[in-house]
Design goal:
Blueprint: H1 10-16, E1 22-28, E2 46-53, H2 58-65, H3 75-90, E3 94-96, H4 106-114, E4 117-118, E5 124-125, E6 133-141, E7 174-175, E8 178-179, H5 181-189, H6 194-199, H7 202-206, H8 217-228
Antiparallel strand pairs: 1-2, 2-6, 3-6, 4-5, 7-8
InterPro entries: 4Fe4S_Fe-S-bd
Organism: Mesorhizobium alhagi CCNWXJ12-2
Protein name: 4Fe-4S ferredoxin-type domain-containing protein
């Protein structure tokens, strides 16, 4: 697969674009790494991550969802698998998902591919998109790719003095000690959790970076409902 100086495989970029998806960088596996296999059963030599910036895939996903049976479980995962799987087939790659079991180290791969670091919320902080981005899958290849050299991005959290992302949650779900999952879940499901259910995570929305990519309220409500199982 050919690559250009400006990025990885323009043809692959063009194949993902109609679905609101983008390439999120890639890397070659080391010879001593334990890696998943490709379609032939051989160990993968390289990986390209696929994801989104902002809510670009949302209208494409909604149109697809209208054609699916009511009550489909994990519809966004299903849509992502279908789209990325079809693109992978066209490029001779194996498509994998963050929800595949056994789980693969997608966050570590993302940090490796884009040089990002976690925010205090655990979401990787992107220098342009802030916290408003996601990884929807990866493509595994049997050959090494000419991956453009990665320039280490600035970590915006290092510049943020007030850390408003740690102060907005009424349940104090996020702190320097980590994420209090049960406290968050209980609050979101409870009688006082309507602002979170309707408008999204208050801590995430308090982050001052990448606000132009912030998910619309309906998108945030969808993700909160999936998180809370409601």
């Amino acid at each position: 697969m050919e690559t250009s100086a400006s990025g990885i495989c323009p043809e692959l970029v063009n194949a993902l674009s109609p679905h609101g998806l983008i390439l999120r960088g890639g890397f070659n596996f080391g010879a001593d790494e334990s890696v998943p296999s490709v379609l032939s059963g051989a160990p993968a030599k390289s990986a390209l991550l696929v994801g989104q910036a902002g809510s670009a895939p949302w209208p494409h996903f909604l149109r697809w969802l209208e054609t699916q049976p009511a009550g489909l479980k994990d519809p966004l995962d299903s849509w992502s698998r279908q789209i990325i799987g079809a693109v992978a087939q066209d490029f001779g790659a194996r498509a994998i998902s963050p929800s595949d079991k056994p789980y693969l180290p997608f966050q570590q791969w993302a940090m490796r591919a884009e040089g990002l670091r976690p925010s205090p919320l655990g979401i990787l902080m992107h220098p342009q998109y802030g916290l408003w981005h996601a990884y929807r899958g990866a493509l595994l290849f049997e050959t090494e790719l000419a991956i453009p050299r990665l320039e280490k991005p600035i970590h915006l959290c290092d510049l943020c003095v007030g850390k408003p992302c740690l102060k907005a949650c009424p349940a104090d779900a996020h702190s320097e000690a980590g994420f209090a999952h049960e406290a968050c879940l209980s609050h979101v499901r409870g009688p006082d959790g309507a602002p979170c259910r309707d408008d999204g995570c208050l801590d995430r929305n308090a982050c001052p970076y990448g606000t132009e990519y912030r998910y619309p309220i309906d998108v945030q409500a969808f993700h909160m409902a999936a998180f809370a199982g409601i």
